[in-house]
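[audit] Reproducing an earlier prediction to check determinism. Same input, same settings, fresh worker. If the tokens differ from the archived copy the diff job will pick it up downstream; this log only records the rerun itself.
[audit] input (248 residues):
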Amino acid sequence: MPRSSALPLRLHGKLARDLGLQIVSGAIETGVLLETELAASERHQVSRAAYREAVRILAAKGLVESRPKVGTRVTAREKWHLLDPDVLSWMFESEPAEHVLESLFELRMIVEPEAAALAAQRRTSEHLERMSRSLAAMTEHSLATEEGRIADREFHATLLVASDNPFLRTLTSSISTAVSWTTVLKQRVRPLVRDPIPDHQRVFDAIAARNPTAAREAMSKLVELALFDTRNAPRAHGRATPRKASKS
């Protein structure tokens, strides 16, 4: 499965991930007041410094907020940094709600077709070479493998970079993470029925031909079909029991 980092997580990072997974899955509900630093460090068998650092990580992602004499509380979903690659990954490690999936594909439909149109006008030979290598790797390994999914992520990331728009480029990590996790989600129960690689080839061909209209249309179709595949993929079920909000 996709990972936010190729390196092993340090202790505070692992704790932040564990707590983050519980929060975004609903096992710890919004509004819940987390344990005190002392109680949490004892229960998780970590130092208080490690727990504090884990909380800082979650706070930076908008999942919790700490207040003097009150403690650390899980924030409302509206405050979460949903495009943070870690938050996206945590959401997809459990079974994401249908509304979350639909919203994510809406974002992709807004961003990626226009990015493809810009890439068709602004791409360099280096961008084309990187996308070509990604396509070759996807074809060789298929999206059922980690190698193929890495190549798929690189294809979409390169396309955003090729748009030569600095604001779109800031979405590279988020869109790449979304692409990877939706691909995993579609195959949790069984392999993909439809081969999406020809959809990517059409996007590549349009960008290579410097045809922004064709690139926009090809990417719109790619995202549309990816949503279709995701909607029709059988799902694995099972969610954790939520921890109710404290009255403190």
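[audit] rerun output stored. Observation attached for the diff report: Confidence is low (pLDDT under 50) at residues 3-7, 238-242.
[audit] end
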